[in-house]
Amino acid sequence: MNAGADMNRDTVDADIVVVGAGIVGLCTAAAVVHRGGRVVIVAPGDAPVSEASGGLIRRFDLDAGPLAELASASFDHLRAIASAYCAFQPSGALTLQYGHDPLPTHVRTRTVPYASQSLNQRWPQITVAPNVIGVFESGAGWIDAPRMLVAERGDLRARGACFVHDRAVRVITTQGRVRGVVTAAGERIMARRVVLAAGAGSAALARTAQVSYPLRTRKIGYCYFRVGRDRIRNLPSVVDRVGAMWVRPCTNPDFVLAGHKVQVFGVPAVVRHEISDSDVRQIRTAVAPVFPLVADAPVVGGVTAYDAAPDSATPGPVHHCANPHGLTIAAGWNGGGFKAAPAIAELALEDRS
Ligand SMILES: Cc1cc2nc3c(=O)[nH]c(=O)nc-3n(C[C@H](O)[C@H](O)[C@H](O)COP(=O)(O)OP(=O)(O)OC[C@H]3O[C@@H](n4cnc5c(N)ncnc54)[C@H](O)[C@@H]3O)c2cc1C
Question: Which residue numbers in the chain have pLDDT < 50?
Answer without folding.
Answer: 1-8
